[in-house]
Specification:
Layout lengths: L1 H15 L6 H9 L4 H8 L8 E3 L7 H13 L8 H4 L6 H4 L12 E3 L12 E6 L2 H12 L11 H9 L7 H9 L7 E5 H6 L1 H12 L4 H10 L2 H6 L7 H7 L28 H19 L4 H8 L5
Helix pairs in contact: 4-12, 8-15, 9-15
Length: 310
């Protein structure tokens, strides 16, 4: 009887709540996603020198890198319900009710989206960079049907929201902060595009950085980071723990689907956006990364990262 009542109340609550249908509503929903107290508690966690923080900007390969790191530290353990349960999102863990330890494997690993300025210091750091238009398109697809009703917000409106982000939460501030420290021994910076082009080389870089020499473990981690493998285990990478814990706090109805396992081909975002959006992103790049570091576009920065001719 109790379960039937709970199911009825859950269904009734889902009917009362409605998903936002504009950018303003989406932003109000996002305001309830993370609490300042929960974030502060996570970022105050004492850091061990062996801790690994995986901190790309949103939709730049975070889940993919979590899987690589987890595979390397455990030799391929897949017994987790969702990847966030074993590599907790450090600034969200308290809001999600997830412990930061114990964790499986030889060292602790955490997901984050923090800049170098905000991330807890004293550990090891892996960051993945991605073309900003591709990242925006991926975030749009991730939010659609979760933080706003499918079809209610245009790509152009969403692009303006991303372009207008402030207070250090934007893509460009995040990238700049990590670019400044890319040569530190405790920081590894890769590009999403290079991971797509040569996963073996990327896993090798990460394994070298983490000092994991066993070729068998490296091979397992690479195999389990392949698209086909992660797609076959899609529920383990779909943020269902986050949705279950935070949808009500955001005023969102239950039942959303937020898959993270997509092909995400490099450069696939630009054909999906207008010339005006492409021009706006190019201008934003010029006034931020271009003005500070001298790279005229993302491709030039990526070439410099990977030691290619500019």
């Amino acid at each position: 009887m109790g379960k039937k009542i709970c199911n009825f109340l859950g269904s009734l609550w889902g009917e009362i709540l409605q998903r936002p249908t504009d950018i303003g509503g989406m932003m109000r929903a996002l305001d309830g996603f993370m609490t300042s107290d929960g974030k502060a508690k996570g970022l105050a966690e004492p850091v061990c020198p062996t801790d690994v923080f995986i901190s790309p900007f949103a939709k730049c390969g975070t889940t993919w890198m979590q899987q690589i790191v987890h595979g390397l530290r455990t030799g391929g353990d897949m017994s987790f319900d969702e990847i966030t349960a074993v590599t907790p999102w450090i600034e969200m863990a308290h809001d999600l009710g997830l412990p930061l330890e114990p964790q499986p494997g030889a060292f602790r690993a955490f997901k984050s989206h923090q800049s170098w300025d905000e991330i807890p210091k004293g550990g090891r750091y892996i960051v993945v960079l991605r073309d900003p238009v591709d990242a925006m398109v991926s975030l749009f697809r991730f939010f659609e049907g979760w933080f706003f009703e499918t079809g209610s917000v245009s790509m152009e409106e969403f692009a303006q929201y991303v372009l207008n982000e402030r207070d250090g939460r934007d893509y460009w501030s995040h990238l700049a902060s990590w670019w400044d420290v890319r040569d530190r021994d405790d920081v590894l910076v890769l590009s999403y595009e290079s991971m797509k082009h040569d996963l073996h080389a990327a896993v090798t870089q990460v394994a070298d950085f983490l000092r994991i020499e066993d070729p068998v473990i490296r091979g397992i981690a690479e195999a389990q980071a392949q698209f086909a493998f992660m797609k076959a285990h899609e529920r383990q990478f779909d943020d269902h723990l986050t949705r279950a814990a935070r949808d009500a706090a955001c005023g969102l109805p239950p039942g959303s689907v937020a898959s993270k396992v997509n092909k995400g081909e490099a450069g696939s975002g630009k054909p999906l956006v207008s010339n005006n959006v492409q021009a706006a992103f190019a201008a934003k790049w010029t006034e931020t990364i271009g003005a500070r570091f001298g790279f005229g576009e993302y491709a030039a920065l990526r070439a410099a990262l990977e030691g290619q001719p500019g």
